[in-house]
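Supplementary Note 3. Input sequence used for the single-chain structure prediction.
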Amino acid sequence: MANSYLKESAGFRLVLIGLLALALLAPSFMIQGLIREREQRRDGAIAEISDKWGNAQTVGGPILIVPFMREERDELGRTRTTVRHMHFLPEVLNMESSLTSEVRYRGIFEVILYNARIRVSGRFSPPTIEGFNVHNDEVLWDDAVLGVGISHMKGIRGTTAVQWNDRQLVVEPGIQSTDVLPSGISAKIPGSSAREGANTFSLDLNLNGSETLSFIPLGKETRVKVSSSWPNPSFMGEFLPESREIDDSGFSAEWRVLHLNRNFPQKWIGAEHAIQDSAFGVKLLMAIDEYQKTMRTAKYAIMFIVLTFVAFFLIEIRSTRVLHPINYLLIGLALIVFYTLLLSISEHIVFRYAYLVASASIVLLIAVYARSLLSSNSLSALIAGILVVLYGFLYVILQLQDYALLLGSIGLFIVLALVMYLTRRIDWFAAWKTDASKRAEQARD
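The predicted structure, written as discrete structure tokens, is reproduced below.
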């Protein structure tokens, strides 16, 4: 009785098909979880290699750091001597960097690494303590240092020397004060030369890093130039380059930042300002992030399931063929398998070819299955054509990120209009009745 009602009542089958579509949301969410897991494994491989080679680097400085001593009283009235630090920024700061990039592999995962040769030069104006409420006899000019911030010390390669006017200063690891620069290198300035007029400086940095190289604009006028043979840069941070050139042979970019463009002054005491918030630079991108595109594809799973089920159901309504819910379940599972195929294949070949292989495999599988169910070459070809249009439409949406919502909305509107047109003459009340009840009504009439 139940089987007869299922076979003869199109309305009942429609409800079961809808429930199956909702049930298939569970494996589609599991696929999205699998994509996130593979992406996390990729990120873990990148972090492991980067930690040994050199993480994303941020270069800040140099900063002239001058300590001073001050006697203070605590809550109990006891006098204690504390050492604080004044920070003076350069008048002119020039940084020119050349990046040599390479791709390393951890299993099937790719990691972008670089070696940066950075030439840093500029000039300090004579430091003044006006406005600091500090007496000159409290200032320890002989203990002044020049600090250069480097975010990941493990990436330093080779010995670095600082040219201070006509003197060469020895560089030591670490910075006397971490109020502003949490890590880096420093050089002690001999005697009282720190306050003797304008001072010029220059140094060369040889740094290993991964993916991102950033700079902090500490000069009253900061100029930065970066060039590399990597063809896919992404400029990020607080400032975009004034000029840039990008082609297949690489890129070059130049920034110019004034002290008026940032939110901290040329001198201050202690840790009053967060200079890292003004960092800018470049990120070396892979041409395609297959996980991001696969995740975007998987979010359309319910649309594919519903539209494919609708196509089969309309074929049922307009022909004498009747499909069992198990047939719909197997077709839905085939549509879900597309995403696992796409994910696994795209880890080994270019995304567009992985998409072609995965979609062609699923279209062929469902078309052959439809041929055996419907016993019709024309109907199976119709199903294959619908799937080709759907997968082609989805691929176009993936390429047009800025217009994806607009194109997707228009596509869904067209599909809905087509379904409404094809079902305009269907008596949905009659669809709930079995063939026996229909014959009984006809006999009464």
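The longest helix spans residues 25-53. The longest strand covers residues 57-73.
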